[in-house]
Amino acid sequence: MEERVVENKMGVMPVQKLLINMSAPMMISMLVQALYNIVDSIFVSRVSEDALTAVSMAFPMQTLMVAIGAGMGVGVNAMLSKSLGEKKQEEADKAATNGMFLSLCSYILFLIIGLTLVGPFYRGQTDVQSIIDYGIDYLTIVCCCSFGIYGQFIFERILQSTGRTFYAMITQGTGAIINLIFDPILIFGLLGAPKLGVKGAALATVAGQIVAAIMALIINIKKNHEVNLSLKGFRPDGKAIKRIYKVGVPSIIMQSIGSVMVYGMNKILGQFSSTAVAVFGVYFKLQSFIFMPVFGLNNGMIPIIAYNFGAQKRKRMIDTMKFAVLIAVCIMTAGLIVFETMPDKLFMLFDASEYMLSMGVPALRIIAVHFPVAAYAIILGSTFQALGNGIYSMINSIMRQIVVLLPAAFLLALSGNVNNVWWSFPIAEVMSALMTTIFFIKIDKDIISRIPIGE
């Protein structure tokens, strides 16, 4: 009976109400995550600017870690939701159990990276020894304890795929709160704890991830009866893994390209100063507070579109897309206003020096220009993934970040004025929006327009 209620919710509930119902918990949890990412850096900035720069330089590796987990999660999400829409229970179970197996494989990969490659990774970005030392301390812990984030990815995606986004919000929020509580305690040695500096920040982060993963697993076992997570007699299913990665690999590549982009930008900005790298890192922390709710909106939207694609209901798919674009543009416009009107106050949260302020204020104002355009591109790009055509999103991401953004940043850096480098972001986003529109016209012609209009 409960399974039918979930299916009716995704296939029958009025679209606007459904999207808010599915997305609001994820948007709230993403906001909390963004908040603890910002607070994490605020605390680290009190250690020193070099410590802040070291944590900022860890971002490409952390982005890669998230890319592999999130891409796999997108594949599981799309396959699981579509299978439920088609009433194929066995396929849904395979999506979940093989996703768990892939999460374990992902952890083993980053355990190896954490033990062998962290030092070379930092030395490739800077020759400042204090930054390298801080970075190795921080990133080794994050990589070697990444079983928490990969457990969190798979078990929360299973909850989202079956319409239980409220529970995913609870697990993510709990993990974020644990991080927030333990950050100052472990970084500064409060309440009798040892003063661990950036190591404390890393330990607080992984502790939150581990607790969230355990909670999500327990909730799936006790509350989620639409999917069977039993591993009794489990063997990896090549066909299920192929289906997961058909959607997931483009998403992994797409987000991994973000890792390459950040690494490249760190190299370009490092030619100006380590403060320029720190400014870029602070921007990424701040923009997550604007972008994360939009990604939460995506997480609620993808299973709705995938489910109604499986159920062959075109009108519900189109209405979901339109409403999601409207919400995303409103969120990003609000972010634009904040970044344009109070950039100095935002940077002072990170104990910014006068030199950092002089560089950071124009950076935020220039980069934020592209926010509303990015909202449009992000939402439409996610519909490609929900419909099993993540390759379009991958191509778009490669073009935006590798073919346009990095070369533009490099050429603009030749002017000798770091402020010019920030214009590479709006330039790349306009190109991305144009490509997204072209791809959407094609996917509408090839897939969406051929689906029965439905209810």
Task: Describe the 3D structure.
The chain is mainly α and 455 residues long. It has one domain (2-450). It contains 19 helices and no strands. The chain has helices spanning 2-12, 15-45, 49-57, 59-85, 89-116, 118-123, 129-144, 147-161, 165-188, 198-223, 238-270, 274-310, 314-341, 343-348, 354-367, 371-386, 390-413, 418-421, 424-446. The chain is globular and about 60 Å long. The two termini are 22 Å apart. Residues 1-8 have low confidence and may be disordered.
Mean pLDDT: 86
N to C succession of SSEs: HHHHHHHHHHHHHHHHHHH
Q: What's the number of structural domains?
A: 1
Relative helix content: over 70%
Categorize the overall geometry: globular
Strand content: under 5%
The stretches of 5 or more residues where confidence is low (pLDDT under 50) are 1-8
Question: What structural class do helix, strand and pairing data support?
Answer: mainly alpha
The N- and C-terminal alpha carbons lie at a distance of 22 Å
What oligomeric state do these chains adopt?
single chain
Number of helical runs? 19
How many strand elements? Answer: 0
CA radius of gyration is 21 Å
Describe the largest sheet: none
